[in-house]
Amino acid sequence: MSDQNHPCRGDLPVVAVATLARITLWTVLMLALWCLVPAAFGWQVTTVASDSMAPAIRSGDVVAAAPVAPGDVEPGHVLLVDDPDHDDRLRLHRLERIEADGLRLRGDANTAADSSLVAPEAVHGVGMLRVPWVGLPGLWLGTGELAPLVGVVVVAGLAIALTRLDRPIRRGEPCRRCGSPRWQAGEHTVDASETTDPSSIIRGVAAAGVIAVALTSTPTPSDAAFSAQTGSAATLATDLFPACFAGPQLDSPTLAWDFGEPRGTSVRDVSGHGEVGTMISGPRRNDGPCGGNPSMNFGVTDARVQSSVRQTAPQTFTVEVWFRTDRAQGRLIGFSSDSVVASPSKDRHLFVDANGKLRFGVQGDKGWRYADVSTTTVTDGAWHHAVGSFTAGSLDLYLDGVLQQHRDDAQALQSYTGSWRVGRESLDGWAGQPSSFTFIGDLDTARTYDTALDAAAVREHFAAGR
Questions:
Q1: Superfamily of structural domain 37-135
Q2: pLDDT in tens, 204-247
């Protein structure tokens, strides 16, 4: 006859906590060990020691760089090189351009390129894999920051202790509160060796030691000539590198899509706020070298990119995008309550109307729609810079850095939950409604802000370009 388990009241939360602790420990341990795997294939692994590559790469991230021939490096590659200013250090920066005397690098967070050129033979590899946070304990150990290091050890010890909470349950020991057996009488016997099991203590200590060694035995840190402070919403997962420099990020955008990824159907949010975009219905990247400034082509019916982050539609905001088209149709960027082609609620958008002019529209909390319109058409096939900003009593539309129209009659806007989108959305009922709601053309450098940018800021953004 097989054993039959009799759960005791309160067992489920204990098992859940212990299981979660085990999953957390194994996840951290596997990520730490994963950092060392590329070294077995000849890649160089390093821990990032500054924020000069923020927000894509942060202090404490572990980066694996694949070997590359000097002649194969291209602008946009993240290179691990010998630091030209410090003989005993490495530097992890992005290649901005190739000059006659060497390679000119720049950190993503820096406004200026590195002052010193890098010789081609000083390149160790091109960054291919990033594991966030795992190298922080090693950095703390190297800099003598004991407080956070002790904190990690304490948390690891607590997690290991939590993994043992459900041992009596898994062994079928009688409930300590009520004394009821967890197994049918005579079918399972718990002896003294099972309850004490000193080897389990040794295994727990060994596990803590392995975790500590894995987290603190990080490879040679890669330093940088500059550092910067920017916000980032990091995730505990390995990540591939973006292909190109992030576009301008003036005035702290809350969403920033540059469409410079090398592959895949996801669009990276280079603002650091985690608003990853998903390509839907066939938008296509205009691939090319970073110097050619890749963009996204919307040439297919219903093509769009939708943010993964759902939020309440903002009452104060700015939307911004660069675009080029020869068609008098389609939405450029806006807020949508759903990811379908025609969301139940949608506004806060820029679109090209039936007359080929640019419009910026919002919907008030009473259902009224308010829109600004440009003074000229935008269907000449050239790149244009579009900005729409709103705060209570001020609705402004800018085209190529110039204010097109201002309205002061819009106050509170309708409130609903949704997400930002570029590309196709229904424009049914809006003034200037085009015959097709699909934008046909190219979009680049899409931004949203939680403030209403003023005229001076918009002119600065236009001057900065794509």
A1: Umud Fragment, subunit A (2.10.109.10)
A2: 555 555 555 454 554 555 543 322 222 333 333 344 455 566 66
